[in-house]
């Protein structure tokens, strides 16, 4: 069943105004993307009931949380919404176990046991440690477990991974996906990292200067952002894992009827097994990593060569962004205007889309 979050709100703080009108219907994770100061945290605080200046209406799954015209305002404690912040905000003098107990005490109707959450979040070996003895990633796991234990109807996450290193980010991203799926817990995830959102979100909202400037299915929105300065231009994909080739350290990914190879020589056997068990893998290829050939490159070291057609040519000074279609999938390649002229490229022209296996990137394996 889909969740419905309806936002029709305004909040003004000094020169900054947040004005949001959006109805979201989603079953997984909604991502909120925007640069620093765009209003992402302000939006989460409004939904959570932490901003006293908000006017308008907010409802979640037919429960009215705020309706200022009718003087209705459910306070933050009773909204059944939990929040995870950039910094974990745990009790430093307590152990992991005691921090979790504290959350259980505050929640009267918890259907999830502490043990279930500990197993889900892999915290069993850390229970007796003081939170000050934990790494940043481990602390965020505790913060997530604590938020989940209060059994919220909606979980809001505000840049929860921004202080973490790449490995901790990867673990937490996988954990968030698992928690979202296993507990069927809807989430709104705020980040200025398009990479994190590409891995997690089913839908994406883009905020600029307190207003939504784009929203929709995650791959589509990221592709639309290629024409702005907001992200590094990229092709965003969901692919199926077809086959692992251990001899060459590659995985073969199915994209419609074509295959893409990605490097996995750095993966452990455990990671490779996890990869084969995925229904689908999110990955991305920067437009600067894709090149074009007009005749079939038969003796190239570049392993990925797909046959497609140019559907759009956008030129900004000496840089050109080509939009290419290859069956149902859209690809983006950035080339120089020199190459555009040298190859005499034109709309509807059939071309070979080339990229190295190492150019296919993901954060979750
Ligand atoms: N209490 C406040 N009083 C006045 N202005 C505020 C207040 N809180 C936030 N602002 C302003 O509102 C704007 C949006 O802030 P917000 O924290 O929502 O942005 P953000 O997109 O989450 O940024 P970041 O990614 O840096 O956290 C900023 O210009 C900020 O200075």
TrEMBL record:
Keywords: ATP-binding, Cell inner membrane, Cell membrane, Membrane, Molybdenum, Nucleotide-binding, Translocase, Transport
GO molecular function: ATP binding
Residue ranges of domain ABC transporter in the record: 1-234
Pfam families the UniProt entry points to: ABC_tran, TOBE
Occurrences of domain Mop (ranges): 299-364
SMART domains: AAA
Superkingdom of the source species: Bacteria
Name the UniProt record assigns to this protein: Molybdenum ABC transporter ATP-binding protein
Originating organism: Thalassotalea castellviae
Keyword Cell inner membrane belongs to the record: yes
